[in-house]
Amino acid sequence: MLFIFDMAGVVTNSSCMKNICTKLCIGLDDFYIFQLDSDGGNTYQNLSLGLISPEEYWSNFSHNSNIEISEDLFKELYKPEVDNSIIFLINELKIRGHRVVCCTNTIESHFREHLRLGNYSIFDFVYSSHLMGVKKPNPEIFKRIIDIERSLPEDIYFIDDDVRNIEVAQDIGINAHLYFSSEKLEKYLSHFLL
Q1: What is the Cα–Cα distance from 158 to 61, expressed in whole angstroms?
Q2: Sequence-distant (≥ 6) Cβ neighbours of residue 55 within 8 angstroms
Q3: By the 8 A CB rule, do 129 and 106 touch?
Q4: What is the pLDDT of residues 93-136, one digit of tens each?
Q5: In sequence order, what are the residues at sequence separation of 6 or more whose Cβ sits closer than 8 angstroms to the Cβ of residue 77?
Q6: Is the distance from CB of 5 to CB of 128 less than 8 angstroms?
Q7: Are 146 and 104 in contact (CB under 8 A)?
Q8: Beta-bridge partners for 8
Q9: Is the peptide bond before 80 cis (omega within 30 degrees of 0)?
Q10: From 137's CA, which of 1, 48, 101, 171 has a CA 20 to 30 Å away?
């Protein structure tokens, strides 16, 4: 069996946007407005698809907010914490001979920080949106993983905390579990852990 885990919201806590808002003394609504480009496009989405660099993102954000930002705040203020109970479950799956990979919508700054901290080392492979140029819930990301892993959809179990991603995976025929807690996930995976 192939198990695909989401990263933020399942294996680790999710974001640093509140930290950025606190540092810049802005509200979350302002944060979302300031990241729009001149055409109204979301530059964070472009960042998570690898279409722009962090420098381009912050240059646009600085222009929109009139706040001078000379560092990558996504790097400086990202402090992910790992859920050790999920790490334990992943290890148990691997001990029982299952392949476990990560499929994450992320940006270069966060990806590099997880690498530095060794947070991805638990996985057999990491599929990252910023490197693949496609992100969940686009079904293309799942189709690529199916092809690369040479797996049938029915032989895949996908765990994510976003219902949109779960629904798309299920539409393709992948077994999917909407993550709420490690306790519920352990029950869901119990027959694979015997």
Answers
A1: 34
A2: 72
A3: yes
A4: 999 999 999 999 999 999 999 999 999 999 999 999 999 999 99
A5: 16, 19, 20, 23
A6: no
A7: no
A8: 12
A9: no
A10: 1
Q: Please name the residue that has the structure tokens 């040479």.
A: 150
Enter the tokens of residue 45: 């989405």
Answer yes or no: are the C-beta atoms of 49 and 129 closer than 8 Å.
Answer: yes
Please provide the size of the chain in residues: 194
Q: pTM for this one?
A: 0.94
